[in-house]
Amino acid sequence: SDAEDTVYKDSIITISAQPSTVLGPVSAASAANVQYSVTASVTSGNTSAPLTYQWQVNNNAGGNWSNLTNGIKNGSANAPNTNISGATTATLTIDPYTVEANNYVFRVIVSATGTGATATSANGRILITA
Q: Where are the beta strands (DSSP E) in 28-81?
């Protein structure tokens, strides 16, 4: 009976597997990948709606969330000196990383195409030791 029901079915996205709250501490010298993954599904309404993903980053210093894009981020405010892949998939990979990326926070916005439904994951944070 809501007005939007003539355009959208009410849909709910459930994120059943969340990014790690804290990853690490890990050593910058190891240069290993950091990966965050989510498992999501539409659990109500249009359950066949395709899902889209947009990973975001925050420097954990009170700044705004920024959408991530794939590629190398040299010295940028968005996870500096990292190579980002999977910015629009269920799994984000950050490789390699340096101590400059310490304490950066990541999350994903999951959307169900054509429904207007979105869900935001828990935060995952990188803790790096020298």
A: 34-37, 39-44, 51-58, 66-67, 71-73
Q: How many whole angstroms separate alpha carbon 115 and alpha carbon 65?
A: 24
Q: Buried (b) or exposed (e) across 100-122, using 16+ Cβ within 10 A?
A: ebbebbbbbbbbbeebebebebe
Q: How do residues 49-97 score in pLDDT, each as one tens digit? A: 999 999 999 887 767 898 999 988 766 556 677 788 999 999 998 876 6
Count CB-CB contacts under 10 A for residue 84: 20
Strands 105-112 and 51-58: antiparallel
CB 124 within 8 A of CB 20: yes
Structure tokens at 50: 């395709």
